[in-house]
Amino acid sequence: MRIIKDKFTSKNFSSRKGTKIDMLVIHHTGGEYSSDVNWMCSKESKVSAHYYIRKNGKIYNLVPDKEKAWHAGDSFFDLNGDGKIIRDEKWFNARSIGIEIESLGEEYPDDQLQANFDLSLDLIKKYNIPIEQVLGHKEISPGRKVDPGNFNMDAFRILLHGKLHEVDVRNIKRIPIKIDGKELQKTV
Ligand SMILES: [Zn+2]
Q1: How far, in Å, from the CA of 143 to the mean position of ligand 1?
Q2: Per residue in 139-184, pLDDT tens?
Q3: Which positions are annotated as active-site residues?
Q4: Which of 28, 45, 79, 141 has its Cβ near the most Cβ atoms within 10 Å?
Q5: Which fold would CATH assign to domain 3-186?
């Protein structure tokens, strides 16, 4: 996996102020390559993401991981599964890495899906991000956002989990992932 670092850079970021990275947020842009990067790299937009993945699978790094990119917006989530909803734009951006996938909402090409998977796995390993904190924008901004569209976040988490732990089905004790609100551990 090759990450292109200097072709596009966005100044739309601020400091994480020491907040540790422990979340990954996946988006799709709703746009196309040149307009996407122009938008995220223009000062007026005040939006950005750490990574942008083109349809051809090329990965661009727009904002350094150590900085807080502006991608989540007004978001909320029951992070600990205890019914306590956390709602704070700054809080989500401060702790997360944002990946934008080039798409107008159509099916994603294989090269692009593979790049997103490889990059996500890499970031999860690098920052020790819990799989249940790999989230789609639509999951932390329900009602406001629908991205990533055509993208099954549950399946994505399961695939990442399997790859991360080299899952041998005979050894599965617990997968900390819920589907339709039900813990999978009872069924595997
Ligand atoms: Zn989004």
Answers
A1: 12
A2: 999 999 999 999 999 999 999 998 998 766 655 555 556 666 666 5
A3: 100
A4: 28
A5: Lysozyme-like (3.40.80)
